[in-house]
Specification:
It is built from 29 helices and nine strands. By secondary structure, it is of the alpha/beta class. It has three domains: 33-276, no CATH class; 324-395; 472-615, no CATH class. Strand 3 (209-215), helix 11 and strand 4 (239-245) form a beta-alpha-beta unit. It starts with a helix and ends with a helix. InterPro entries: ORC-CDC6-like (IPR056955). It holds the Pfam family ORC-CDC6-like.
Length: 617
């Protein structure tokens, strides 16, 4: 039925925080760190794009709470907190850094700008509170208006209108370098504290907290962060600040007083989204959407594991052509004793192919290896356990034109590919649904996403993410070059097992200080923009290694480059090779691969063949 198909298409299609309010209420799932976020102490919520920062902060805003209360949680005035939400617009705040105003006037103007933004939000909160409790005490905003130099303003709506006009005047003043009529500037955080006092006096904050949620804190300049750091450090209940930012987004710990620094845990708590039980949260979000569809009569599994079935090792080996490789190994045993041939024939193809894999990996004679396997079956079972997954990537070696050379399927795999990013996770599922519809679904039978559709989804999302890298930052082009080169290197490692450990997909960087200094900012920016992930190195190997960091490409790229998404073994790249990618990429790639011959162009997966010009220099 077309209606069911349309419902399924929309099921995971909206994975951004900018939902409409009714959808926000029905689809919002509290993240596992919710209890930490609603404490009185200011909090910095840290995570990359798509990790759910904006959604979590917006869930604290008064209208989101109201929407959930309408869905049956509780009446709005029974909530434990009220919140406002301010997103830092990079273009707007940059104007305060490039204006012709003096440093002091620039600082005072920015404080006034932030005060206006937050108080416009607080005016909207007041209007909502008065609607929710019409019999409540009137909120007298005259004291707040006075902090802005406004007279005869005694209503939240009039104050909001006056502040909106004041915002326009301020922007003209700043953008024209002070050549327009100077506005009356408010003191640093006086309007916010006064608003909190007014709400308390009106009886709306009995044992309630007032959250000022600031999103995209990294967009602020250092001097602007210093000012807001002072707001945060000197905040007092009921007012508390909740800050969303990317990793490394806090550019300074200083406040306006150079000797006065923002420190943790005294002044704020850090909530690192990547460390907050992402898998459980992501599954809850997805299961809630499936359950919602099921209630509307759409024939989908309520269980995510049934909706996204995984493949067993044996199933995947069959799909990737293990029988063909096993037959090749049997041919190599044609001169072996009959009893050895009979023994080999008794093995299922999902095991027998491994003889050929180990022959190519070790370069030992097939007959000798077969004899050893028959005599030491437990040893070979261990070997298959250690190298079996890695051998799946090798199975498609030489298969020109194969549509799928490695499957990426199952909830666990999608969670690993998303790696703490809820937007990636929902996008993977959404694209898998679209791929399944293209492969065929009648709209009436129970819908389960095939491994093929899941794999095509993973490859597409990785490709899309790769295309976005150039526009993410000033280092975007260099980041994309690194991703292309490192991804191709790990692809080659996965295809060619000879002389190397299985599943090499992490790396450390060492080399001369000058090259390390050139590549470090690119890696740092790549980590901030989710091109790479970085963890503390587990085993030191050299004094020349750059810092103590171990990197890997973000797992969202694994299906695109066709290598293992599991965090396993690391390799070492020379910083000089990575620097060389900008001028001599083919030479740099040869140094990075260090051994073996690259896959011929006509055997490359289609998605990698698109970048042949880059790989060949």
């Amino acid at each position: 039925m077309s209606s069911n198909k349309e419902a399924v298409q929309q099921l995971f299609g909206d994975y951004r925080a900018e939902w409409s309010q009714p959808d926000f209420a029905s689809l919002f799932t509290p993240p596992p760190y919710s209890e930490k976020l609603v404490h009185a102490r200011p909090s910095f919520l840290v995570g990359g794009r798509g990790t759910g920062k904006t959604t979590a902060l917006r869930s604290l805003r008064f209208d989101a709470a109201h929407a959930r209360s309408q869905a049956g949680e509780a009446s709005a005035h029974h909530l434990s907190h009220y919140g406002i939400y301010v997103r830092i617009n990079k273009n707007r705040v940059r104007a305060f850094s490039v204006t012709e105003l003096s440093a002091n006037d620039r600082q005072r103007a920015f404080a006034h700008y932030f005060n206006i933004l937050t108080c416009i939000e607080l005016c909207q909160l007041c209007s909502w509170l008065e609607r929710d409790r019409p019999s409540g005490k009137r909120i007298a905003v005259e004291p707040v208006a006075a902090t802005f130099g406004l007279k005869d303003v005694n209503d939240p709506r009039r104050l909001q209108a006056a502040l909106t006009d004041g915002l326009t005047a301020l922007e003209l003043y700043v953008n024209n370098g002070g050549r327009t009529t100077p506005p009356v500037l408010s003191a640093n955080d006086a309007p916010l504290k006064m608003f909190a006092a007014v709400l308390s006096d009106a009886g709306y904050l009995d044992n309630k907290l007032l959250f000022c949620c600031i999103d995209e804190y990294e967009n602020l300049a250092v001097e602007q962060q210093s000012m807001l750091n002072a707001y945060i450090k000197h905040s007092e209940p009921p007012l508390s600040y909740k800050i969303g930012m990317r990793r490394e987004g806090l550019k300074t710990h200083h406040t306006l007083d150079e000797g006065d620094q923002l420190s943790t845990p005294d002044d704020y708590a850090i909530i690192d989204i990547a460390e907050e039980r992402f898998d459980t949260f992501a599954e809850s979000v997805a299961n809630q959407r499936l359950s919602s569809a099921k209630k509307r009569g759409v024939p989908v599994h309520e269980s995510l594991t049934d909706f996204l079935p995984e493949m067993s090792f044996e199933e995947e080996a069959k799909e990737l052509g293990c029988a063909r490789v096993a037959a090749h190994a049997a041919l190599a045993l044609r001169d072996a004793p009959a009893d050895l041939q009979d023994w080999f024939s008794s093995l299922p193809p999902t095991k027998a192919y491994f003889l050929q894999y180990w022959h190519e990996s070790s370069n030992e004679p097939v007959i000798a290896l077969a004899k050893n396997w028959r005599e030491n079956p437990s040893e070979w079972d261990t070997r298959l356990g250690n190298y079996g997954y890695s051998s799946l990537f090798w199975l498609s070696k030489g298969r020109k034109g194969a549509r799928i050379r490695k499957y990426y399927a199952g909830v666990g795999t999608f969670l690993a590919l998303a790696s703490g990013n809820i937007r990636f996770f929902l996008e993977l599922i959404d694209e898998a649904i679209q791929a399944q519809l293209e492969l065929g679904w009648d709209g009436e039978s129970m819908l389960a996403i095939t491994p093929r559709a899941q794999t095509e989804s993973a490859r597409l999302v990785g490709k899309r993410r790769l295309a976005q890298l150039e526009g993410l930052s000033e280092h975007g082009v260099e980041i994309k070059r690194l991703v292309l080169a490192i991804g191709k290197t790990f692809f080659e490692f996965a295809r060619d097992p000879i002389g190397r450990a299985p599943e090499q997909n992490s790396f450390v960087v060492n080399g001369d200080p000058a090259s390390c200094a050139r590549i470090q900012p690119i890696l740092n920016d790549g980590v901030a923009n989710l091109a790479f992930e970085v963890t503390a190195k587990t085993k030191p190997t050299s004094e020349l290694e750059m810092r103590d960091d171990e990197y890997r490409l973000h797992p969202i790229f694994c299906a695109f480059f066709e290598y293992s998404h599991r965090r396993k073994r690391r390799v070492t790249f020379q910083a000089s090779s990575l620097v060389k990618l900008s001028t001599r990429p083919s030479a740099a790639l040869a140094e990075m691969m260090n051994s073996g011959n690259p896959t011929p162009t006509d055997e490359l997966p289609t998605q990698l063949a698109m970048f042949t010009d880059f790989y060949q220099g």
